[in-house]
Design brief:
Largest sheet: 4 strands, antiparallel
Number of strands: 8
Radius of gyration: 23 Å
CATH architecture of the largest domain: Up-down Bundle
Structural class: alpha+beta
Helix content: 55-70%
Shape: globular
Keywords: Membrane, Transmembrane, Transmembrane helix
């Protein structure tokens, strides 16, 4: 049995992925939010900066990564149309690209929601915040990417399960579930650590994806964006994908469950990657605090926390699990073809 793609989705998927990539790049430069005050002053923010500071710079790298993956998915999906080509790799890359787009969108979406919530809580401040065009473009791109990845999956015939040891689905499933657990643990660990040198003693400041803390009797400076929420959602998607793959196993009757398990796992891995890319650049950006303290005559030490490293490792494991799941499908398909060829 050879894998093939049905005509319409196979023709539509590459241009749809390219259109989505364009929307992502456009959305990264368009305004994510627009803030106005009583005096009529306006501040806008996109993924590369804002009108009053450069704090958002390099967060756009997550959008660039998503666009690159979408272009790659378009190319691989186009190549998968050729006779004799296995579409498992196209499905995996399509899922990862779609998930990465959704993850990058969720990362900046949490910032926009936080700013809108802050403005709503301070109604007397005269500050009004609204989502901009860029946010809506990224949301549309995410929906389009996921829909196209699903279309690519349902338009390909599932490979027959094989018995080759390298085709064992449990390996990819365990990798996805393990990555999900590590990601949730990492979300509670510090994203970065800062030790401020003071005359009365050192003050330690840290921030995770859920909260921030300060040693001693000093109160944390306000609320934070809780990126732990979308990271947990991405982890849950990974677990669902892993469970579906493990439940399907090598059973011919459960091939459809395995197919969608691989897609779900790939989307979860990509979503985690899109989120963690944003987290990592924010943690790296926090290293600038040390330079700022020095410029003001203060001493401090800032370092990337264990949480960031845990999330990066979890992302790598999740992506490897998604790729391994696709590889197991390829090997299984090749194993099932051989007996048919030998009998002819």
């Amino acid at each position: 049995m050879s894998e093939s793609t049905s005509r319409w989705p196979a023709l539509a998927a590459p241009p749809l992925f390219l259109i989505t990539a364009g929307l992502v790049i456009w959305g990264s430069f368009a305004n994510l939010l627009v803030e106005t005050d009583r005096s009529g002053g306006e501040m806008t923010l996109n993924m590369w900066g804002s009108t009053d500071s450069d704090e958002g710079v390099i967060v756009g790298l997550s959008a660039v990564a998503a666009a690159v993956l979408l272009v790659a998915a378009a190319a691989v999906t186009l190549l998968a149309r050729r006779p004799g080509r296995n579409a498992a790799g196209a499905r995996a890359l399509a899922g990862i690209a779609a998930g990465w787009t959704a993850g990058a969108t969720a990362f900046v979406g949490m910032i926009v929601l936080f700013q809108i919530s802050e403005a709503s809580d301070r109604q007397n401040s005269g500050r009004e915040v609204d989502a901009g065009l860029g946010m809506w473009l990224l949301i549309i791109a995410s929906v389009l990417a996921v829909a196209t990845a699903i279309a690519v999956t349902v338009s390909t015939k599932a490979a027959e399960p094989g018995t080759h040891p390298w085709a064992e689905p449990a390996s990819g499933a365990f990798a996805m579930i393990g990555a999900a657990v590590l990601a949730v643990i990492g979300s509670f660990l510090p994203m970065y650590d800062r030790t401020a040198r003071r005359s009365g003693g050192d003050v330690e400041i840290w921030q995770s994806l859920w909260s921030q803390g300060v040693s001693g009797n000093i109160r944390p400076a306000g609320d934070i964006v809780r990126w732990g929420i979308p990271v947990t959602v991405a982890a849950a998607v990974l677990v669902i994908g892993g469970v579906l793959i493990a439940a399907a196993g090598n059973s011919p009757e459960r091939r459809l469950a395995g197919l969608f398990g691989r897609l779900t796992g790939a989307i979860g891995a990509g979503a985690l990657g899109g989120l963690v890319t944003g987290v990592a650049v924010m943690a790296i950006d926090a290293l600038k605090i040390e330079e700022q303290d020095r410029s003001h005559g203060r001493e401090s030490d800032v370092s990337i926390g264990f949480g960031t490293y845990a999330l990066l490792i979890a992302t790598a494991i999740a992506v490897l699990g998604a790729v391994w799941g696709a590889r197991s499908a390829r090997t299984a398909q090749h194993d099932s073809v051989a007996p048919q060829e030998n009998t002819r």
